[in-house]
C-alpha cells in the first residue's frame, strides 16, 4: 500500500516568507487501486506527484510503499516528452530496464515494447520520428513508455489534457486496459471531474492551497466507463448538486483534518455509484454546505 503523509511542503517565496503548498495531506492507495486526485489550480497536485515520485524530497512528512520509499515508479506528464531524434520504438526502449543486461533481455524488452505499441495502435509507426505523429499518437507513445517496465506505481499528471474528446476517451480506454493487465497502483492528477469519475476506483478532492484531502469518494460504477456516458454524467451532476463548491476546493481554511472512515455524506452507500467518506473531522454535511 502507498501511504502519503505530507505534514508540510513549502516553497521559498520572493518576500522571504515561505509559500505553503501542501499541509496536513494524508492519502493512501491500495495495491492495484486507481486513485484520481482532483483540485483547483495551484492547490499542489503536481507538487504531490513530484514528492511521491521522488523528484522533490524537501518536505516534512513521509511517503512509503509497503514500508519503503517507492522505487518502482512510472511517470506520465502533460507533455509527452519524447526524444525527437529517436524513433517511436527507441523512445519506449529508452526507459526499459535490463535493456543492456544480456542479448536475451534486450530482445524480450524489444518484443514487449512492440507489443505495447501495437496495443496502442502504433504498430505502423514503430520506426517513425515523433515529429511525424499527431498529439494523440505522441501521448500513446508516452503511455506505452509508462508501462514498459510494468511499474508497481504509476504517477500521471494530467496526461490527456488538451486532447479532443474522442482521442482522450480512446487514451483512457487504453490506460485502463494496460492498468488492468499489469495491476499497477495509479495516482492520477486531473482537474477534470468527469475524467476522474470515468477512471477511478476512488477520487480524492484537494482543498485550495495549501492542499489537503477534503473529500474521498469511492466510485462503484462498472467498467468500461465513458466520461461522456449518462452514468458518469448523473454521478457528476449529483455530486456537484450536493457539493457545489467541490471543484473550488471546499472549505479551504479548515484545520485539524482527520479521516472519519466511511461516514456517509448524504450519499447512499450503493446504487448511485459513489460512496463518500468525509475527511474533515466534523459533521459531514455541515462541513461542506
Ligand atoms: P497544481 O498542480 O495543483 O496546479 P502546483 O503543485 O503546480 O499546483 O503548485 C502549487 C503551488 O506551489 C503554486 O502556488 C505554485 O506557484 C507553487 N510552486 C510550484 N512549484 C514551485 C517552485 N518550484 N517554486 C516555487 N513555488 C512553486
Description:
Helix 4 runs parallel beside helix 5 (165-182). The chain is of the alpha/beta class. The strands form two sheets. The protein has a seven-stranded mixed beta sheet, sandwiched between helices. It has two domains: 2-72 and 153-288, P-loop containing nucleotide triphosphate hydrolases (Rossmann fold); 85-150, no CATH class. Mean pLDDT is 84; it is low at 251-276 and 278-289. The protein is built from eight helices and ten strands. The longest helix has 18 residues, at 165-182. Helix 5 links the parallel strand 6 and strand 7 (185-190). The protein is 30% helix and 22% strand. The structure holds adenosine-5'-diphosphate. Adenosine-5'-diphosphate (ADP) binds next to strand 2 and helix 1.
Core attributes:
alpha/beta; binds adenosine-5'-diphosphate; Rossmann fold; 7-stranded mixed sheet; 3-stranded antiparallel sheet; 289 residues; 2 domains
The small molecules bound here are:
adenosine-5'-diphosphate
The number of helical segments is 8
β-sheet strand percentage: 15-25%
CATH topology of the largest domain: Rossmann fold
Q: Would you identify the CATH H-level superfamily of the largest domain?
A: P-loop containing nucleotide triphosphate hydrolases
Placed side by side, the strands forming the largest sheet appear as: 5-6-7-3-8-9-10
> How many structural domains can be distinguished in the coordinates?
2
Which structural class fits the helix and strand makeup? alpha/beta
CATH architecture of the largest domain: 3-Layer(aba) Sandwich
**Strands, count:** 10
In helices, the fraction of residues equals 25-40%
- Report mean pLDDT, rounded to a whole number: 84
Sequence stretches where pLDDT stays below 50 over 5 or more residues:
251-276, 278-289
What is the N-to-C succession of helices and strands?
Answer: EEEHEEHHHEHEHEEHEH
- Termini separation comes to 33 Å
